[in-house]
Amino acid sequence: MSLSIFSLHAMPFANGATIAVIVLMLFMAFKLYESYKNKQIYQLLISALLLFFVKHSLLLSDSLIPTAYSSWLNVTAILLQIISFIIINFVYLKLYTYRSAQLKVVPFALLAAFSLLLPVAEHFMPQWPMLDLYSLAVVLIVIIATRSANLTRKYYASLIIYFIYELARLANQYLFETYTPYLKLIIYAAPILYYCLLFLLLFDWVIDRLLTTYHVSILDGLTGLYNRRHFQSKAEQMIRQSTPVAIIFCDIDNFKKLNDTKGHLHADVILKQVAEIIKEETAEIGISGRYGGEELLACIAVAANKVRRVAESIRSRVELESGVTVSVGYSIAKQPCPIHELVKQADEAMYMSKTTGKNKVSAYKTIPAALKKNQAVT
After folding, report:
1. What is the rounded average pLDDT for all residues in the chain?
2. SS3 assignment, position 197
């Protein structure tokens, strides 16, 4: 098939492919609208995509069944394209810079409103292709205005592709009198690539939002360790899958005094340092979590004779690297048992360290029998 024959059939294919991508994005947008509280931004996203959909549906219909109103249809398509382009860029900027930039609605609204006046102006001055030139100008304005927004490469690639599309469209319409199939191929291919990039941008944002939500649900916001609920769930899995398993319970010594004398910000820095040490020491052999306040713990699956070595390594590193000390206790389960019992026994061992001098490691099995509250785990 020659290039010229192919290009004659390219417009229906390009618009059909573009519509398919837009439909996928609309499905995602409606799901976002249903799932999140910020309804306005998703309403704008849906509105922009619907305008894109109408525009390409009109072009697809005209390419299959040309009508006497093709010139007005072309004006309508360009107008829809300008307005939807302005809205979609406002939406993406809002999604990706929501916390770091104060995005104003007014400039985008003025850009869209001004485009509505141009068809009227063209009616009185038909020698000037105002709408087409304004369409190109809007792309340049958005590129310049977003140059410092620090968005992803996909976003800037989409703007560049769209700018190339507008240049090719205007060049084909106003500069070349003869049929230019290569330029037409750019005109047909660029929108598909543009909408694919928009889809990937939206998809990336959704995935990032899901991962953030997931991390918030399982991690402690300050230390980055597992929160108490998720730690217990993961520890229960470890106990079922391997033995022996040990819980190491750490409590920062004199933490309240640190808060009172140095302030909460300094205390938070220390807490994060201790948490990072525990995470590093147990990364290859187990998990770590925040039990509450300054209480941090780990669940490790190692030989029973190595548990004290790990606990002692945590204690010594904290003393050397953070400027504070920790009281540490541990308990070992040689057979499956309820996680809350194992944690409680490690807590008792930690309390023994706390009340007998601090900055030391105690094993639950070394606590005098009269002081033990549990006997189920060795």
Report:
1. 87
2. helix
Beta strands 326-333 and 361-363: pairing type?
Answer: parallel
Does 250 lie in the same domain as 200?
no
- Residue 192 has a pLDDT of 94
Domain that holds residue 61: 3-218
Q: How confident is the model at residue 368 (pLDDT cuts 50, 70, 90)?
A: confident
d(CA 326, CA 348) in angstroms, rounded, equals: 14
Q: Is residue 346 part of a domain?
A: yes
Q: Using 50, 70 and 90 to split pLDDT, how confident is the model at 37?
A: confident
Q: What is the CATH number of the domain that holds 344?
A: 3.30.70.270
In a domain, 376, yes or no: no
Q: Is residue 248 part of a domain?
A: yes
What's the start-to-end Cα distance of the chain, in Å?
A: 80
Own/partner pairs for 229-237, CB < 8 Å, 24+ apart?
230/289, 231/287, 231/288, 231/289, 231/290, 231/291, 231/297, 231/299, 232/339, 232/340, 232/343, 234/287, 234/289, 234/299, 235/287, 235/299, 235/339, 235/342, 235/343, 236/339
Question: Is 50 exceeded by the pLDDT of residue 5?
Answer: no
Number of domains in the chain: 2
Mean pLDDT of 277-302: 93
Q: Are residues 263 and 354 in the same domain?
A: yes
